Amino acid sequence: MKTSLSVLGVVAGAAMLLPGAASAACETITLGSAISLTGKYATNGMHAKNGYEFAIEKIKDAGGVQFGGKCYNFNVIYYDDESKGDRGATLAERLINQDKVQYMLGPYSSGMTKAIAPVTEKYQIPMVEAEGASRSLFNKGYKYLFAVLSTSEQYLASAIALAAEKATESGKDPSSVTVAVAVENDPFSLDIRAGVLEDAAKFGMKAVVDEKLPRDLSDMSAILTKVKLLKPDVLIVSGHSKGAATAVRQISEQNVKVPMLAITHCEAADVTGKFGAAANDVLCSTQWAETLSYEDPLFGTAANFNTEFKAAFTDYQNKKVPYQAAQASAAVYVFKDAFERAGSLDKEAVRDAIAATDLQTFYGQIKFSEAGNNIAKPMVLRQIQDGKYNVVAPSAFASHKLNWPRG
Known about the structure:
Number of strands: 18
Helix content: 25-40%
Structural class: alpha/beta
CATH topology of the largest domain: Rossmann fold
CATH architecture of the largest domain: 3-Layer(aba) Sandwich
Largest sheet: 7 strands, mixed
CATH superfamily of the largest domain: Response regulator
Order of helices and strands: EEHEEHEHEEHEHEHEHEHHEEEHHHEEEE
Distance between the termini: 37 Å
Radius of gyration: 21 Å
């Protein structure tokens, strides 16, 4: 299946055909999602949608969601939020009030989730989301919002720990390490900034550059000029897919030399495919990797998910399967598990079952705190080495040694 589906307005129903689909005798559970299919988040929005659809077909192929002597298949009503928060909120209202959706899958990005969460909370609609990692989502007392992914302050904090480790190995005090930070002015990236600066402060490190990326994320040359002048030991960049592509391209064009470069959204931006060797030795935060030893009865191992997803969506065959797709599939799996444990279509019973989730998946362990964030799964840091993404941190999951200094 190709990812270049044209989605205008509402698209209902599964778009992927896998062999052995469950019988049409199964009833339907309708989920809703306002998601970015156009606008600046469109690339990752489509990754998330593909992840939802893959899981829906996988569940159907395995016999559906089963409880009360019946089977059910998921069906999703999608609307394009155009990467605009106000539109996302309006579409959430439409899904609930006009389409009568009682259960929601999340949008893409923390900002879009932040716009929609007050709506689902207002109507007491359980929402399992996979793409909003900002910790600011989980300090508002929401009772109907649940996130399968690790929160954003954890994304690149391990890069700071790695820098401290390398300083010590070199006979230097970690406090001698200098850090540069350049992030998008959105909730997700601002949380990453906060996590990085908090961890840097623990080691006594100094932030010599602390800048916001331009709104359109297309030019960070002025920031890189400062980086060349001040020569930090670590450069942290977070700007979703577009920001990642801009960073790798312009760092190469401007010949910026920095011993450690860590960015978000490497796979989603396809930095290896677009920039080749220029992406080598970049550290990339990830929620998931196909080399991890996670597995479950539905998807099998992480490696099996990777293989089957690529077979279903041919556009990914020569690319990394982005973690955005994997965690979207995990969100649908949480709904399946919750419905079966609740044994009911009552949204309050389903909400309570989601809250009690303790589920091992191909994506990692999923267990929610009272605030709704996943407290059971660590972040992973990979480094692009000769065009391949290799896990280098945390050490318990590392498959390769870190290349340092970069370049």
